[in-house]
Amino acid sequence: MHKNFVFLCLAAIALSACDSEIAYGEYQSLKGDWEKDQSVAFNFVAPDTINPYNIYINLRNNEDYPFSNLFLIVNLDFPEGKTISDTLEYEMAKPNGEWLGKGFSSVKENKLFYKEAVVFPDTGSYKIAIEHAMRKNSNVEGVKSLKGITDVGISIEKTAK
Question: Which of 2, 24, 11, 30 is nearest to 147 (CA)?
Fold first, then answer.
């Protein structure tokens, strides 16, 4: 009985690992607060120009994060010089204040959709640069030093067929 249980657990882990194929993944740790206009950049080579990929923004936050949402400005630079700029909003906490994301400790990890089913049009080096765009109500200047975001990352995963 015990051997069957262990085998089933290992089989479940192996099957779940097959759900997505990570073509690229990286985190950058923020030393202290995330400063306004501080860009977190990731350079990567397109995995191919045929298959669709999902691009995720991965964030880790702790209990010092003072907001229930997060605004980001994300720039995607293409090898030939074109740039796509997006302003994105993500929910970080439920209305009752409970943090979204995974994790048992005070640090929660969030995997946020950035782009879905992207087919990279060109071979070569791409760049994704991420800045926060948080503002307090009635404050035009924005938050100069954002607390509670400990790591910023991206992952590029082949879509499941």
Answer: 30
Spatial strand order of the sheet with 83-91 comes to 40-45, 125-132, 69-77, 83-91
Domain ranges of the chain: 21-158
Can you name the residues that pair with 57 across neighbouring β-strands?
112, 154
Chain position carrying tokens 């990929």? 53
**37 vs 127: CA distance, rounded Å:** 17
Q: pLDDT by residue (tens digit) across 35-74?
A: 998 999 999 999 999 999 999 999 999 999 999 999 999 9
- CATH fold for the domain made of 21-158: Jelly Rolls (2.60.120)
Q: What is the CA radius of gyration of the chain?
A: 18
10 phi/psi in degrees, rounded to 5: -65, -40
